[in-house]
Amino acid sequence: MTDRYAVFGNPIAHSKSPQIHARFAAQTGQALIYTAEHIEEKDFEAAVERFLQGHGKGLNITVPFKERAWALAQWRSERAELAGAVNTLYRLDDGRIAGDNTDGIGLVRDLAENNGVTLNGARVLVLGAGGAVRGVLQPLLAAGVAAILVANRTVARAETLAELFADDGRVQACGFDQIPAEAFDLIINGTSASLQGELPPIAAASVGPNTACYDMMYGAEPTPFCRWAMELGAAQVIDGLGMLVEQAAESFRIWRGVQPDTAPVMQALRTALKTA
Ligand code: NDP
């Protein structure tokens, strides 16, 4: 039987993961089936068990189940442990369910490898303090950034995240109105404000001619944050499509032991977005 993989979420209809993994499989000559499954909230744990007992070799997990996937994993990678969330499940040789989180490494690879953004020594402003931001802090620190300021609408959530990294000393927290009026090397929008067509309330002073701006969101048109950054003359403006493809590539590598080439897949998705 062909090895099976799936992404579990709710809602799931618009997931691009099946087409990304189908392209990776074709490109690397791997025989597999990857589907998107709508899972009812009450069924999540049982559905994971069922899937991984049959021909299911691995799962991606998306909203709203990443924390529950973290809880059900019987072994977790260090990056998953720190993220408090799991987006990749598979079985270890001893039968235990393993959980990993590839979102953060996906962002770091998209920034550093695909877009040439220098992370080593960078002063980074991160907007938002939800699940996505929590998952990217440790990989950014591991990439050598000098400092991360996490700014969030609900300041207490940003403070809670900064406390997780208190030993490291490079992560600080504040509200949007407390961001110092100076240009950062890199600004990452990890809020879901773009989903509502909104821009987090940050000052133009945060963007200088050498600032790279990254929105974890993406779409057919530039997001409000990307438009704002372009108008201010940011050095680079990047959306989250590359992060999506890179996190998928890392899951594929974990499951199949083969590193896919992400560039042609990103190109195909970008073209599909523009012509949809
Ligand atoms: P969460 O719901 O966990 O967090 C949402 C965050 O956005 C919170 O910090 C919230 O602030 C903030 N926020 C929401 N609306 C506004 C607003 N109007 N103005 C300012 N801040 C706002 O979401 P996630 O962390 O899971 O996801 C965040 C974004 O990242 C989403 O857009 C998601 O699509 C994207 N993402 C992209 C990935 C990729 O591969 N490209 C992977 C994962 C996520 P508060 O705490 O005050 O409510």
* Distance linking N and C termini: 34 Å
How many beta-strand segments?
Answer: 12
Do you know the CATH architecture of the largest domain? 3-Layer(aba) Sandwich
Bound molecules: NADPH dihydro-nicotinamide-adenine-dinucleotide phosphate
Evaluate the radius of gyration: 19 Å
Largest sheet: 6 strands, mixed
Assembly state here? single chain
**Helical content (DSSP H or I, runs of 4+):** 25-40%
- H/E element sequence: EHEHEHEHEEHEHEHEEEHEHH
Organism: Marinobacterium weihaiense
Family: Belongs to the shikimate dehydrogenase family.
Enzyme class: oxidoreductase
Keywords: Amino-acid biosynthesis, Aromatic amino acid biosynthesis, NADP, Oxidoreductase
Question: What is this structure's SSE topology?
Answer:
Blueprint: E1 3-9, H1 17-28, E2 32-38, H2 44-53, E3 56-61, H3 66-72, E4 75-76, H4 78-83, E5 88-91, E6 97-100, H5 103-114, E7 123-127, H6 131-142, E8 147-151, H7 155-164, E9 171-174, E10 186-189, E11 212-215, H8 224-231, E12 236-239, H9 241-256, H10 263-275
Parallel strand pairs: 1-2, 1-3, 4-6, 7-8, 7-10, 8-9, 10-11, 11-12
Antiparallel strand pairs: 3-5, 5-6
Helix pairs in contact: 1-9, 5-6, 5-9
